[in-house]
Amino acid sequence: MTTLLNVENLVKNFGGLTAVSDVNMHLNDDELVALIGPNGAGKTTLFNLLTGVIVPSTGSITFRGTDGVIPLNGMKTYKIANLGMGRTFQNIRLFKELSVLDNVLIAMTAHYKENFIQSIFRSPKFYKTEAQIREEAIELLKIFDLQDDLDKQAKNLPYGIQRRLEIVRSLATKPKILFLDEPAAGMNPEETADLTRLIRQVQRDFHITVLLIEHDMSLVMNLASRIYVLDHGSLLAEGTPTEIQQNDAVIKAYLGEEE
Amino acid sequence: MTTLFQQLINGLSLGSIYALLALGYTMVYGIIKLINFAHGDIYMLGAFWGYYTINFWHFNFIFALLSAMVVCAAAGVIIEYFAYRPLRHAPRITALITAIGVSYFLENGMSYLYGADTRNFPQVIKQVNYNLWGVRVSNIQILILGTACLLMILLQLIIKKTKMGRAMRAVSVDPDAAELVGININRTISFTFALGSSMAGAAGVLIGLYYNSIDPLMGMTPGIKAFVAAVVGGIGSIPGASLGGFLIGILETAVQSVGLSAYKDAAVYLVLIIILLVLPAGIFGKNVKEKV
Amino acid sequence: MTLKANLKYNICWLILMVAGFYLMNTLILAGVIDSFLENMVVTIGINIMLAVGLNLIIGFAGQFSLGHAGFMAVGAYATAIIISKTPTAGALYLSIIVGVIIAIIAALIVGIPTLRLRGDYLAIATMGAAEIIRIIINNMKITNGPSGMFNIPQFATWPVVYIMVCVTTIIIVNFIHSRGGRAALAVREDEIAAESMGINIFKWKLAAFVLGAATAAVAGSMQASYLQTIAPNNFNIMESIAILIIVVLGGVGSITGSFVAAIILGVVDTALQNFGALRMVIYAVVLILIMIFKPSGIMGSTELSFKRLFNRKNKKVGAKS
């Protein structure tokens, strides 16, 4: 097992406020890790740091790509995404006015470089690639049972389906690591169970690493092989679900509140 | 040194006109996020009102100024009621096009009714030039600068100290929340238009006095310049609009005084672009980052 | 979508274009369209080119530009200067290319710094940039300064303009329906999400902006050579706004809408010719009323699509049988 993403002494200050303080973590190949913590613990901020949406104050993030270890600090979001980091958003950010299919096709743009001249003058190659990516997109949509909604506008989908589409969209970027920000938020227990199954299936079939933020403990304990607990911006604990469930500090800070 | 002060005085006089206009832009933008393209034409209405009342009704300066403010305030409220209110929830670009339509309507309506020719503004106050340490200052320049400053202070007081001013600030921050706490949104927006338009009306009368000539299309260029001033100052910010107005006025006269009058507008736009690149929300504007 | 599957629709479009050409030709030969009406048709064509290009920038890439007239001026003056010196048809085409290249360079110079701005700030910055272009032209010797250029040879006859309208529209529509176009749409919808999907948002904003500017330059070239006279004031803020009005009236994000609005405005403008000063008053009132009662424009964001027409027909046939 090798380390795919390594985070060392990561700090993010907003003015006088420290949102993330001295976080050390790592993600290995092919594993499913959960990031939990009370509201305002800095989980989404950490996601934004890892995906380059915001720039760390200090500390390092490195990614082991095909060309060796690359530092991600200060790298543009789209470049980080193209290295193989896909994500979803806590407050769903689909391309609302566009169709389900277009949402997925857009995520594949970076993988199919096109020649401006070819696309404007429509060479046979252009049509061939278009057909190919369309097929690929539909294959992905099938996994999440969305193949019948291809032409629907994303904004018209029910909430739970929108969350699924966001996952399909991020899968279409062919990620090595998938960051899921509260994928089960707002879902009923049945939908959550369904989603749990899908996440596990995707993680296995695509051999990707998944880091997920989630409040639903049943989902977390079911899925994750390791758990990081974040509280007030710093890591409180790290371990297997069983270890976390028995960790006094965690119980006190987090689980204790729920019982 | 004297030329420098001379240009500064000229720049401040012109700048105070821009500042008065910029206030209207900034207030309206602050409250309904609309670039009110017709604002420059309200200023033209103010100038024409001054022209007619002084010429035919023999108003004195103060009365012409005050009545122009009242008439323009009414015009602003009427325009908002008929043209902008129905579009409050429409795409913003639609409201912008409507504002352009209103602008065309006022410009061409005036041309159609009263002719498109340029008129001489009556010299209701006789120009007297003072010589202060080699700097030539006219009583009209002092009047313009004084009136503009007085109006700006008055506006600041209304916004900071009155209940209506508080409502304006609330609506510009969050209209839904303002409505929840019992603020009448429509009345507040009408009031904003009234305030902004009255400033434009005053500016119209003052510019007539300063430049002596008025025509139905006189509002177009100063309107755009004043909007630039509002953006430079940070749109939505009252002190920003005043500062921006003075800055643009001074810049324009400065470029003119070094013999580049053909490029004075280009200089204004260049400064605008540079300021926006350094401060994307203008000098006093708040740069709000989107939350992810 | 393979080449073959699209052949049917592409042939439909081709037939439509050729039919339009023949209709126009026949009407001119039959004397139905006189030089006055021909002028109207060509003006409509030029406005279509301008509006389609601006719609790409505003409606599809979501970048609010108010500087379209500046790029138009670049094309117009490139053509005016070149074909006044060497009055040949070949020089017209060379001048179009020169105009497009200069417009692309200008769009890069304007776009690279300003496309970082958002919404109205971008609009006001691009408006300023276009004014700077106009003022530079206004003060140059080769452009004959504020009085403009006259007696430009007329090589851009109506068929040339017609073909240019078709070519620029095809280029823009093909771009919109390519991967690049989809990336531009994503930028319009949600910049942060687009970036997180690996899309270089700045690149695609710039691509749309530059492509729009290039087609505006072609429109400028056509105007200079067809009308034979141009002046810097033809390319001021009001011209940029006039193009914006066509885009919004037709529907932001609908190329079909830009066509429809340009045609309607062109016809109405000609019909109101005799109303003198009242013409602009009526125009203003109509504009305000349309915006109030149809805020999304004539077409909204829908497009004329042969594919959809066929599909609908197939469905109806299927339902019957």
Summarize the structure.
The complex is a heterotrimer of chains A (259), B (292) and C (321). Chain B is mainly alpha-helical.
Fold blueprint:
The complex is a heterotrimer of chains A (259), B (292) and C (321).
Chain A: E1 3-14, E2 17-28, E3 32-36, H1 43-50, E4 58-65, E5 68-71, H2 77-84, E6 85-87, H3 100-107, H4 116-121, H5 124-143, H6 159-172, E7 177-181, H7 189-206, E8 209-213, H8 217-223, E9 226-231, E10 234-239, H9 241-246, H10 248-258
Helix pairs in contact in A: 3-6
Chain B: H1 2-32, H2 39-56, H3 61-84, H4 92-114, E1 119-120, E2 129-132, E3 135-138, H5 139-161, H6 163-173, H7 175-180, H8 185-211, E4 213-214, H9 220-233, H10 238-257, H11 264-278
Antiparallel strand pairs in B: 1-4, 2-3
Helix pairs in contact in B: 1-5, 1-8, 1-9, 1-10, 2-3, 2-8, 2-9, 3-8, 5-6, 5-8, 6-8, 9-10, 9-11, 10-11
Chain C: H1 3-29, H2 35-60, H3 68-85, H4 89-114, H5 119-138, H6 158-176, H7 179-189, H8 191-196, H9 201-227, H10 237-250, H11 255-271, H12 278-293, H13 306-320
Could you explain the architecture of this structure?
With 259 residues, chain A is α/β, with parallel strands linked by helices. Chain A has two domains: 1-84 and 174-258, 3-Layer(aba) Sandwich (Rossmann fold); 95-172, no CATH class. In chain A, 41% of the residues lie in helices and 25% in strands. Chain A has helices at 43-50, 77-84, 100-107, 116-121, 124-143, 159-172, 189-206, 217-223, 241-246, 248-258; strands spanning 3-14, 17-28, 32-36, 58-65, 68-71, 85-87, 177-181, 209-213, 226-231, 234-239. In chain A, the strands form two sheets. Chain A has a six-stranded mixed beta sheet, sandwiched between helices. Chain A has a four-stranded antiparallel beta sheet with strand order 2-1-4-5, covered by helices on one side. In chain A, helix 3 packs parallel to helix 6 (159-172). The radius of gyration of chain A is 19 Å and the shape is globular. The longest helix of chain B is centred in the first third of the chain and has 31 residues, at 2-32. Chain B has 292 residues and is mainly alpha-helical. Chain C is mainly α. Chain C has two domains: 1-33; 34-320, ABC transporter involved in vitamin B12 uptake, BtuC (Orthogonal Bundle). Chain C has 13 helices and no strands. At the B-C interface, helix 4, helix 9 and helix 11 of B face helix 5, helix 10 and helix 12 of C. Chain C: It is a multi-pass membrane protein. Chain C: One of its GO terms (molecular function) is branched-chain amino acid transmembrane transporter activity. Chain C: Keywords: Cell membrane, Membrane, Transmembrane, Transmembrane helix. Chain C: InterPro entries: ABC_transp_permease, LivM-like. Chain C: The chain crosses the membrane at residues 12-33, 39-58, 65-84, 90-112, 157-176, 241-268, 280-299.
